[in-house]
Design brief:
about 70% helix, mainly alpha, cell membrane, 14 helices, single chain, transmembrane transporter activity, two-stranded antiparallel ribbon, about 350 residues, globular, ABC_transp_permease
Length: about 350
């Protein structure tokens, strides 16, 4: 006789239970250990700090989960971060010397009144952010079309486009890091709601809610799972596989653009060499959160928990004064463990 779960009469499968809830136990265990080991970890300020640190990776992971669930992968998002930052940098950069000279010539200087140097019109800031996000989204379209239309391997396509995108970032900035002194723009990544909750955390929460609804409660989401789970069956069922795959990359490009704007705002600069390694963190968050590399299996809550696990690892090791190199090793081991668990679960299901 098979065991039932909560008296429903349905067979209890440990593999399914661990896929759905295992990461929650891992996160809770890590938090419990750090609560005991470090008094600083218990503070509200540290909690907000962790959430702020994972905001950019979280936004990227929300896009990546659509791509992987549909059976693809995107290695170009690190370069997209650099491209977005380079675009806003090129449009919003103001040379300090020229700005000071122009301000002195056009503004009556009153003793004790600080000059506003480096500010740009709000319309220019909005346009710069829009163009940065649009550019990354267009590269998402390109990735999707190359993969879906020409049946090219996502790994090869995005590995190639990341070089193109990175090169464009260097061309746009001339290879320089462009300092962004606009207070209005810096508010995007450094400002706080009610002087308490950083805006990047709010953006992450809003995008996570939208992604949850889109993936779990819409026809599009069901099609994403269908394409990733069994593409031939999806085609036979009348699913437009081409556009589903393309849209997964479009969503990824959009998320990369948003994350790139936030990153540029946080570091107050447009840097063509930024974003390296972020694709690894995004993929790691998805896999740790239960997303299957085989496609067709994922959850948004699991992905968010995966993001938090990586953030807690980094934060905990810093608080315990563990060498930062060990953080990379720990992340790699987590990915290996998550992939092995995924393989075991898939094997048992078959």
């Amino acid at each position: 006789m098979s065991k039932s779960f909560y008296g429903t009469g349905r067979k209890f499968e440990m593999s399914g239970f661990m896929r759905k809830y295992g990461v929650i136990f891992v996160l809770l265990l890590m938090v419990l250990v750090l609560l005991i080991a470090s008094p600083v970890f218990r503070t509200v300020s540290n909690t907000i700090s962790v959430l702020l640190q994972v905001a950019i990776n979280g936004i990227l992971a929300l896009g990546m989960v659509f791509v992987i669930t549909a059976g693809g992968i995107d290695l170009s998002i690190g370069s997209m971060l650099a491209l977005a930052g380079s675009i806003v940098g090129a449009m919003l950069y103001v040379d300090p010397a020229e700005a000071l000279k122009a301000t002195k010539e056009t503004q009556e200087v009153v003793a004790g009144t600080p000059l506003t140097i480096g500010e740009v019109p709000m319309g220019t800031i909005v346009l710069a952010c829009f163009l940065a996000i649009a550019a990354c989204t267009l590269f998402g379209v390109l990735n999707g079309v190359l993969v879906a239309k020409f049946n090219m391997f996502p790994f090869v396509v995005t590995l190639s486009t990341q070089l193109v995108i990175r090169g464009l970032a260097y061309i746009i900035t001339g290879g320089y890091s462009l300092t962004l002194s606009s207070k209005a723009f810096r508010t995007i990544g450094q400002g706080k709601l009610l002087n308490a909750l950083p805006y990047p955390i709010i953006v992450l929460a809003v995008l996570a809610a939208i992604a949850y609804i889109l993936l779990h409660h819409t026809k599009f989401g069901r099609y994403i799972y269908a394409v990733g789970g069994n593409m031939n069956a999806a085609i036979a069922s009348g699913v437009n596989v081409f556009w589903i795959r393309v849209w997964s990359f479009i969503i990824m490009g959009f998320c990369a653009g948003v994350a790139g704007v936030i990153m540029a705002s946080r570091i107050s600069a447009g840097q063509p060499n930024s974003g390296s390694g972020y694709e690894t963190d995004a993929i790691a968050a998805c896999v740790i959160g239960g997303t299957s590399f085989a496609g067709g299996i994922s959850t948004i809550p699991g992905t968010v928990i995966g993001v938090l696990i990586i953030g807690v690892i980094y934060n905990g090791m810093n608080l315990l004064q563990i060498n930062t190199y060990w953080q990379t090793i720990a992340k790699g081991l987590l990915i290996i463990g998550a992939v092995m668990l995924d393989m075991v679960i898939n094997k048992r299901r078959k």
